[in-house]
Amino acid sequence: MELEFRHLRVVLALVDTGSLTGAAAQLGITQPAVSESLRRAERVAGGALFQRGAHGATPTPLGELVAAHARNVLDSLARLKATGSALRLSCTPCTLQPHLVVLAAEALGTAVEVRAAPARAAPVELVADGRAHAVLATDFRGHEHPELPGVRRTPVADEPLFVAVAEDGPAAGRGEVALAELAGLAESADLTWAVTPAGDHRRAYLLDVLTRAGIRAKVRTVDFGTAYGLVELGRVVLPVMPGTRPRAGIALRALAGTPLVVRTSLFWRADGPLRPVDVRRLRDRLADAQHALVERTPLYREWLTDHPDWRTTPSA
User: Fold this and answer.
1) What is the model's pTM?
2) For residue 80, what pLDDT band results from cuts at 50, 70 and 90?
3) Which cellular component appears as one GO term in the record (predicted)?
């Protein structure tokens, strides 16, 4: 009787989650399948690997030893699978998209293949079904990407969203502007809100924030090229990254209270070729690049100085 890789994965999932239910959810299998794999592992190991109680499953000394060996074996297997082929990364439209190829290759020390995420596929699904080893994607509070078994998230950056308005319009000016004030100006000037089709639930998120603030507003989706033209014409208010470069005829304003926040995260498979140390290294490179890219504009640097409590890079 021999142990198979699936039995080792069950042992590690039990160590990570502390319960049969949690291990089953992480691996995407049934609880009876977890129990059977554990019994098989214990028969081969020659003793109990976990003590089960009211608070879950705790590894025995033998279980800790088997888990350590299992982690080494599975790590080696993952690296072996990656040998001779590039790591597959994917990216949704975001500030770091053009930099991911260089940063990932430098951080991971191996060949990297980066592709744009399909518009109709959730980023976490690409990781869950093996189409990508990791995905860099953005989402919003209350509109996060779903949690899937085996897929982990490592935050890279949190940024407030500013708004782009016409330079000669009623919403232009200096300092922060409240959503309610902006909504009043928009209503009197026949402005509407706009978002670009980034595939990241931005429209639903903006509507949600406006509704919670008691603001009834129309939100239209326009392509990237058209969006700034409409802003300059004074027809739309467009949420943008705070590091957006200045454009002729367009002014950027910060929002009081930071009601709009976008999070950039790295999603990766726990049992894939990327080890936690690889993810941390890549995440640090991406966070540094985000700082350099977004904080290059004087407006955002001034805003950060006035908001010292703001943490652009969240805890991993």
Assistant:
1) 0.69
2) low
3) protein-DNA complex
